[in-house]
């Protein structure tokens, strides 16, 4: 998606909507010089909407905002396993999708998307407390309770409120590139990127200091991507065996250590392609991939495009 055009975002507020779920996309995509987005908060009709957790909302727009939007965020709401979305909301979401808009659910907003039938046969997630209820109510949806978010192209779903930030940053990365996503993450004081495959929560059997140690090792590795990084070196920094490190790292991130290192290197390469005119060979050396041919190979495998095409799409001249 071109970074030069204005992207239109609708945030659909339902009865019982969760405050954080509503606020996250509204804040992440709010219009500013670095963010070519326009946000409209809407409901089934303009006016007051009773929210959850003691808050209420007054929305300026009704369902016509869904006919205007490029992407529609559906925040979570109370009692999703009990309360179905109004037929008019289901129809408006379906029409928006047919027109080409992306639909993105935060937390229990997945129940609203599932009611449209657009998640049938697709992977989806929701807050871990409601994954079984979603699977029971919509058995054709392939519910995955062990991920932060799922991107099925035109329909996206995320777990709890915090993973809504991850989903929004993921959308930003696809729309505007890594530099814009990282800038937004710094503004939010959020992690720049957590993979959708990362577990929703760490098993309680893992001691907390070990989790802190692994986070420190990831930070250490991010500052040394241009150097040789092996499983043994990472495990040594974390002061555990390579076997323990591999198993726990996969639980935490959804990737093996070497897959994570490769994706981190590709992300740094993406940002350099966006922000500099350095050659592919120079960037490959900077990020620890050695040669331009190696960078092109992994770029194509992970992102499905070439460094040159990526630079044409997301570079400063775009």
Describe the protein in words:
It is a single chain. About 5% of the residues have low confidence. The chain is globular and about 55 Å long. The chain contains 14 helices and ten strands. Helices cover about 45% and strands about 10% of the residues. With about 325 residues, the chain is α/β, with parallel strands linked by helices. The N and C termini lie close together (about 10 Å). The strands form three sheets. A six-stranded mixed sheet has the order 2-1-5-6-10-9, sandwiched between helices.
Largest sheet: 6 strands, mixed
Strand order of the largest sheet: 2-1-5-6-10-9
Strand-residue proportion: 5-15%
DSSP strand count: 10
Helix content: 40-55%
Distance between the termini: 11 Å
Rg is: 20 Å
Oligomer: single chain
Please state the overall shape, judged from the principal axes of the Cα atoms: globular
Structural class: alpha/beta
Averaged pLDDT? 88
H/E order of the elements?
Answer: EHEEEHEHEHEHEEEHHHHHHHHH
What's the topology here?
Blueprint: E1 7-12, H1 19-28, E2 37-42, E3 47-50, E4 56-59, H2 64-68, E5 71-74, H3 87-99, E6 102-105, H4 109-115, E7 123-124, H5 131-137, E8 142-143, E9 149-151, E10 155-158, H6 161-176, H7 178-188, H8 208-222, H9 231-238, H10 242-253, H11 257-275, H12 280-286, H13 292-303, H14 307-314
Parallel strand pairs: 1-2, 1-5, 5-6, 6-10, 7-8
Antiparallel strand pairs: 3-4, 9-10
């Amino acid at each position: 998606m071109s970074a030069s055009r204005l992207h239109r975002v609708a945030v659909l507020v339902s009865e019982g909507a969760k405050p954080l779920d509503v606020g996250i996309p509204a804040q992440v995509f709010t219009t500013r010089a670095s963010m070519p987005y326009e946000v409209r908060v809407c409901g089934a009709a303009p006016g007051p909407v009773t929210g959850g957790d003691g808050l209420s909302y007054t929305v300026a727009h009704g369902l016509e905002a869904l006919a205007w939007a490029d992407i529609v965020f559906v925040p979570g709401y109370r009692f999703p396993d009990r309360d179905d979305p109004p037929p008019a909301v289901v129809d408006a979401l379906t029409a928006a999708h047919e027109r080409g808009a992306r639909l993105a659910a935060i937390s229990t907003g997945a129940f609203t998307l599932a009611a449209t039938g657009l998640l049938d046969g697709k992977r989806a997630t929701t807050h871990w407390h409601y994954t079984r209820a979603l699977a029971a109510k919509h058995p054709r949806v392939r519910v995955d309770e062990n991920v932060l978010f799922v991107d099925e192209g035109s329909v996206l779903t995320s777990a709890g409120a915090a993973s809504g930030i991850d989903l929004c940053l993921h959308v930003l990365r696809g729309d505007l590139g890594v530099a814009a996503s990282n800038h937004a993450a710094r503004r939010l004081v959020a992690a720049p990127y957590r993979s959708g495959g990362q577990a929703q929560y760490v098993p309680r059997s893992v001691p907390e200091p070990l989790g802190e140690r692994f986070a420190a090792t990831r930070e250490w590795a991010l500052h040394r991507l241009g150097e040789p990084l092996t499983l043994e070196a990472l495990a040594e920094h974390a002061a555990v065996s390579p076997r323990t490190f591999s198993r726990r790292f996969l639980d935490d991130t959804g990737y093996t250590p070497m897959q994570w290192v490769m994706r981190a290197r590709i992300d740094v390469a993406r940002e350099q392609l966006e922000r500099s005119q350095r050659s592919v060979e120079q960037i490959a050396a900077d990020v620890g991939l050695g040669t331009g041919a190696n960078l092109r190979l992994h770029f194509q495998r992970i992102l499905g495009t070439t460094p040159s095409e990526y630079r044409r799409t997301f570079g400063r001249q775009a």
